[in-house]
Amino acid sequence: MLTEELKPGITVYGPLFPEPVQVIVAIPMGVSVKLVGKGAKSNSVYEPILNTEQLALLTAPPAQEPFDGDARKFRLGIEAMRLGLAYEYALEFDAVNNIAKGLGIHLEDLGAVVEISKGNARLLAVSERTQRLFGKTQEKPAKRGHKKAEQQDLFAELLNEAEADAAWRDKAVLSLGETTLDRVHQAMILFATGRGEALKRFLVDDGAGRDARFWKLANALLALYPKSSEENRWVDGVLARKKGLGL
After folding, report:
1. Buried b (16+ CB within 10 A) or exposed e, 140-162
2. 3-55: what fold?
């Protein structure tokens, strides 16, 4: 940074401070400058005298956001945040929007992943994306063990068992998802509904499993989903197919 860039009110970052520091005043002292600032976390006052080399180690956010972030990283980060908040909890829109703006993303453009309602933003669960990813109504995963009433509704909108069997008999992915996250979610839904052959075609014949990014993201999601969650089981099931399919 340059001395003239140390404007009151900006926050500076760098190895010279243990925390972000908000500038109160910068006083030129020959070739050096005395920075008086307040720690953003501790409220401690810092008054170092910085030379040119030390100033060069400081950075500050731009006055105007450039909106040039990587949307793919944002999608992965926002999914991680959803999982870390123990699933489907809504966050205040302003909090999520601030994260998005920092990455150069317009939250309103992510309607396929984020639901905005009544001042809150919520990331959609995998099951809620069935209609978008397959062009069909949300359907239910294959049952495991004894049938119990409380196990019959895992997706928000379900077909009854007979309808589900008929609907999924000819299940096929009409087109690969637009993003890597879409394709991983498609594979998870195919696994969840017991469509082993469709999953094989999707990964091998359609080529979804030949993209290294697909498996990298699937492994990341496996680490992020709570161990007890259905989504953890689904993505683990998809990953288990990799070796057997020679991918």
Report:
1. bbeeeeeeeeeeeeebeebbeee
2. SH3 type barrels. (2.30.30)
| CA quadruple 24, 28, 33, 36: dihedral, nearest 10 | -20
Lowest-confidence region among 36-45, 102-111, 185-194, 196-205 = 102-111
Contact 25, 36 (CB under 8 A): yes
Continuous H helices in 29-123 = 52-55, 71-84, 93-102
pLDDT in tens, 90-126: 667 787 777 777 777 777 777 787 788 777 777 788 8
User: Would you kindly state where each structural domain of the chain is located, as residue ranges?
Assistant: 3-55, 65-124, 127-247
Alpha carbon distance 83, 123 (integer Å): 9
Q: What does pTM read for this prediction?
A: 0.52
| Separation of alpha carbons 198 and 209, rounded Å | 13
